[in-house]
Amino acid sequence: MENYERLGDIVSYLQKKQRATTKELSNQFGVTEQTIRNDLSFLEKEARIIRVHGGAKITENETKFDDRLTENVEEKRRLGKYAATLVEEDDIVFLDGGTSILYLIECLPQDIHIKIITASLPIADKCTILDNAEIYCLGGMLNKKTKEMYGPKALEDISNLIANKAFIGISGFSLENQFTENNVLSLEVKRKILPTVSQSIIIADSKKENKIGIQRAFSFDEIDILITGTEVSKKFVEKANKSLKVMTI
After folding, report:
1. Distance (Å, whole) CA 177 – CA 212
2. Strand order of the sheet with strand 172-174?
3. In terms of residue numbers, what domain contains 12?
4. Other C-beta atoms within 10 Å of 190: how many?
5. Which of 220, 218, 178 is nearest to 96 (CA)?
6. Which helix (H) or strand (E) holds 218?
7. Is this entry keyworded Transcription regulation (predicted)?
8. Are residues 122 and 138 located together in one domain of the fold?
9. Contact predicate 180/171, CB 8 Å
10. For residue 147, what are the CA distances in angstroms to 96, 222, 234?
11. What pLDDT is attached to residue 81?
12. pLDDT of residue 204
């Protein structure tokens, strides 16, 4: 297992357990306790965890959904408006919990016939403005910050559903690390739906360029379209376009 991948898995494990000892983590990931101590030191410097005697506990890094509503609003409106043009009659779409998705929903025809799958409570609520949409909400535990469902029940629910398009948000993107995510619990749900779709679309405002989440989420090859702002660097667009379609709006 690559070190970067293990770091993300440690954070995911701590998010579920809240805290764990160094010995427990050593057994869980099959590495020495010294390796775990080194990993925890790195994660503490990155403000992902808090070291405690004999182990570590989680510190939450997800931004609250309501706080994200006020960030880069005009660009998110543009991205959402363009994303809405990719939704067609009778589509089955997975909508992630990103705030740009709210603007996508606002720009859809009110009478469009579509089926919507989501783990996000605010997204599900927003979809009620669509008269002919069928809305499928995943069960599970509620992340109070992001207002998304996660855990075994959410994963079970998503495993039994199929979509033809997925609109996904991420924490950051870069040429080196591609798409990364801080909320590793919601990432599990996104990864489950991706193999079922014929078109995967990431919506991420340009301020997320070169921001790095704790875990690699997706490679460029796994995603069909990235919708982002015009302020993204030309170098990124040129190189990323070799693997996926980058739309700057």
Report:
1. 7
2. 172-174, 178-181, 215-218
3. 3-58
4. 23
5. 218
6. strand 215-218
7. yes
8. yes
9. yes
10. 11, 26, 34
11. 97
12. 97
Q: What is the CATH number of the domain that holds 10?
A: 1.10.10.10
Closest CA to 144 of 18, 60, 20, 212: 60
Residues 82 and 138 reside in one and the same domain: yes
Number of domains in the chain: 2
Task: End-to-end CA distance of the chain: give it in Å, rounded.
Answer: 37
Give mean pLDDT in consecutive 10-residue pieces for the chain, a chain of 249 residues: 72 83 95 93 77 84 58 91 98 94 95 97 96 96 86 93 96 95 86 96 96 89 98 97 97
CA dihedral of 190, 194, 199, 204, whole degrees rounded to 10? 30
Same domain, 118 and 234: yes
Query: What's the CA gap between 29 and 1, in Å, rounded?
Result: 9
What pLDDT, on the 0 to 100 scale, is given for residue 70?
64
Q: Are residues 103 and 161 in the same domain?
A: yes
Strands (E) located in 53-114: 55-58, 92-95
> What pLDDT is attached to residue 1?
44
